[in-house]
């Protein structure tokens, strides 16, 4: 009898957990679904009370209006270039810095690491003016380099890699590799890199999404429409007199699709990095 009661309690708790997960999943997915529904309807359906909750027939028409209003594919290409190069740079440079902080002992290491953490508390808007002055003196205005180069290093990326390497790369293995004659870079490349692939996936998703969605800095440094990233280009869909919500949400939805694809591709490694060490014997 006690076994039946225990199994019943277990099943009830399990059902409650599944219910919470289902509700959380619905709340997370619904905004994306709602954006897709609005992207497939005309303004008249969007402004109805209650509004439409099922996809309409204006998906192609709304997207056609988008590409006729802005250089959508050109802006997508610019965002892909900027986000991909900056993300690769962050993965390489931050993992190198994280490896140094995790493995090596050098004078002032802890103080320097604290300074890096302090920079995470400073709002990026405070550095907008000095960064703009530097970009102007380098003559990088209206150039994608003005977005790529400042995004090649990230304080959170250094912190994340340092923590992951500290807990997953044994120092004994590093010392054994050095005894065998491996250089510091070869230890990093041949020993650390294979271990921290899941951390790479997590940082890649976070950084790619941040750069892709960045609006303020590209708006400041990009002037010509041919160099606009997608977030800046989407601003051109807003008219001061007539607001076509179906067209606006269509552009927004299709601009979100590359982020969804990146997350799907890196999803398994992302979950692996977050659950690393959660279950140990």
TrEMBL record:
Task: Write down the Gene3D superfamilies for this protein, in alphabetical order.
Answer: MetI-like
Q: Where are the transmembrane segments?
A: 15-36, 80-104, 111-135, 147-166, 187-212, 247-266
Membrane topology according to the record: Multi-pass membrane protein
Q: Which keywords belong to this entry?
A: Cell membrane, Membrane, Transmembrane, Transmembrane helix, Transport
InterPro entries to which the protein is assigned, alphabetical = MetI-like, MetI-like_sf
Q: Which Pfam families match?
A: BPD_transp_1
> Where does this polypeptide localize?
Cell membrane
**Where is the major localization of this protein?**
membrane
Recorded protein name is Carbohydrate ABC transporter permease
What species is this protein from?
Aquibacillus rhizosphaerae
